[in-house]
Hints:
The structure is a single chain. The chain is α/β, with parallel strands linked by helices. It has ten helices and seven strands. It has helices at 3-6, 18-22, 51-60, 83-96, 101-107, 132-137, 164-168, 171-176, 189-197, 216-230, and strands at 10-14, 27-31, 45-46, 66-69, 116-120, 140-143, 180-182. The radius of gyration is 21 Å and the shape is globular.
Amino acid sequence: MSGRWLNLKILEIGEFCLFKRNFADQTTLMFTGDSDRTVQGLDYLSFSPGMLPGLLRSLRREHWDIVVCYPPARTLWDCRQAPARGAIDLVRRVEAFRPLGTYAIRAFRRRLEGRLVVLDYNDEATIPTPALPLLDACNAYFKRELPTDFAKAFRAAARRYRTPGDVVVDPFFQRNVHKLRPISAAVPESVARRAQEARGEKTTDLFFAGSTVNSTVRSRGFELLKALQGQGYVLD
């Protein structure tokens, strides 16, 4: 790692803490998550209304070399819900306030030109609607569930995107598609090389890791795996 990287001042804001865990001395974490369990043992700031003036001043002075933002998965107002239910959810989030921290970065995004990086850990393969302004302002948008066809990442992200054809001709897509990047498994090159060179004894035919309760594809597939196990295959 170069000396220049070690001197960077990083602001990390959202419900995750990748940079704070790996570059603790350089990173200020403004946490917006619902549960503090993910940041236990870390020095962090819990986002609050009182932080807004100081945050704005620091952005004006260009105090931060890099601002890392984790986009929210849900909009403040979900039009698919009944009005009463949507209003209740909105009031709860405003009262809690902490989850609104990423919206502050969204509001100040024009002051972050050349310094904003977005990390999207959401399960959906589509870019969340609240993240579209962040995508437009950032240098790079890293997405965990990034489709091979980047146009599919925009499906349903906005009402105007009804078909793949609507996406690829849209000026917003054309000016931002080059920013999309996958989030890697973060396996060091040395470990990957050792894995390729290793020739251990085979003890398993099929390996599965994951939850089967949140996907009909996984639940059906898991039953098929168990059927193969009944036929003599070694299933881990």
